[in-house]
Specification:
By secondary structure, the protein is mainly alpha-helical. Helix content is about 85%, strand content about 0%. The chain folds into two domains: about 80 residues; about 220 residues, no CATH class. The two termini are about 35 Å apart. Bound molecules: coenzyme A (COA).
Length: about 350
């Protein structure tokens, strides 16, 4: 390039830069508009919730006074349920504050995923991550059953510490993004991190030798259960996605419902098997705690396993009770998800069509 060419190039580039500046200005204005729209949506949601709570309280008072519910009131109750499901779905399109745990670990970085399809992808990745790690844990647990080699045991236990710790972070991100995951399942993974941490510092003594095999069997068993959970959860995810893409929602919602119960009836016996195993481990550890070589880790682990058993049992029974009692709520929740998804798909389709038409018109 000579001097003249350099200057000419620079002039050309400056013209391109003007274009970039215009696009960027438009982008910043749109961002500001988005911020304002988000704030308005949040205000409107608070307004809806406030006025709905007043109406719901009035309905409760009617109940207390023994006023019989006529058709209009029953319809109103249903409408409130529907509106709640829709508000939850609208809420998931808005950015959220990080929880305290995420703020401590990640700082105040924005982890909100505002697009439903990206949310599905994130959840799908989370399930796959659990599956892969469970497969590795299964192989290591089986290897440990046949090979008595301390470093191999430590590799497995260290993997468990890292795995559960990572799960707590991923689940907190899912929660920020509107997942209805129950507090106990998240706490369960915090406790599992502590359990694995204690196991890591349990010295290699006679007491450990006595417990080692039971523990490896347990890890192998829950890895298999994890595989079943993966099949159930990815089935749920796939069906929820399909629900948004179809038009006859009633039929697909019914289909979802019956599939969910079929999936659960297949999974539940194995889950209960896992909880009985946890109780057995607590009992084994209790017995080992009387061993002369037992260190402080043994009774603490016994209590933690007992705790896991009791709360798992309680939570799963509560989940089942809720699922059988509030099938109407589930229907509205599914309908709201399907409605939002079909809206997003329609927007995507429109964009795709526009993109296809634009080059032709040029
Ligand atoms: N871990 C992570 N997320 C869970 C979860 C778990 N154990 N249980 C439920 N969730 C999530 C669901 O994926 C769903 O997420 P979404 O709101 O993003 O769609 C939300 O929590 C609500 O789920 P819910 O409708 O209450 O239950 P479900 O039908 O999805 O699952 C069970 C029900 C019983 C299958 C599930 O809770 C489970 O597998 N529990 C057992 C876990 C366990 O005990 N593991 C140890 C084995 S020894």
């Amino acid at each position: 390039m000579d001097v003249e060419e350099c200057l000419k190039e620079w002039e050309d580039l400056s013209a391109d830069y003007k274009r970039l500046e215009t696009v960027n200005k438009e982008y910043v204005t749109k961002l500001e508009e988005v911020g304002e729209l988000q704030a308005t949506c949040m205000k409107e949601i608070t307004h809806q919730k406030y006025r709905m709570s007043i109406i719901a309280n009035a309905l409760k008072r009617f109940d207390k006074k023994g006023i019989t519910k006529d058709e209009r009131l029953a319809k109103l109750e249903k409408e409130i349920m529907k509106r709640k499901a829709m508000l939850h779905e609208i809420n998931t399109t808005l950015p959220k504050q990080n929880s305290l745990y995420l703020r401590i670990i990640l700082g105040n970085v924005n982890v909100s995923i505002l697009n439903k399809n990206d949310k599905f992808k994130y959840k799908d990745e989370y399930e796959k991550f659990k599956l892969i790690l469970s497969a590795i844990a299964f192989v290591l647990a089986v290897a440990n059953l046949y090979i008595d080699f301390r470093p191999l045991q430590l590799i497995l236990i260290f993997l468990l510490v890292w795995y559960y710790c990572t799960l707590t972070i991923r689940e907190s991100i899912l929660k920020v993004n509107g997942s209805r995951i129950k507090g106990w399942w998240r706490l369960h993974h915090f406790i599992s991190t502590i359990v694995s941490g204690i196991l890591l510092i349990w010295p290699q003594n006679e007491a450990w030798e006595e417990f080692r095999h039971t523990f490896m069997w347990f890890i192998a068993y829950i890895s298999v259960v994890q595989f079943m959970q993966f099949r159930y959860q990815s089935g749920v995810l796939y069906r929820l996605k399909a629900l948004g893409a179809r038009h006859n929602m009633d039929i697909t919602i019914e289909g979802f419902h019956s599939w969910m119960w079929r999936g659960l009836s297949y999974l539940l016996p194995f889950l209960f098997g896992g909880y009985v195993f946890q109780l057995y481990i607590a009992y084994t550890l209790y017995n080992i705690s009387f061993h002369r070589s037992a260190t402080w880790q043994v009774p603490y682990l016994a209590v933690l396993f007992l705790m896991l058993h009791c709360f798992n049992m309680y939570t799963i029974l509560q989940t089942l009770k809720k699922k059988t009692q509030s099938s109407m709520k589930l229907r509205y929740r599914l309908r709201a998800i399907a409605y939002r998804l079909s809206n997003e798909l329609a927007v995507l389709e429109q964009k795709w069509r526009q993109n296809k038409l634009e080059p032709k018109s040029e």
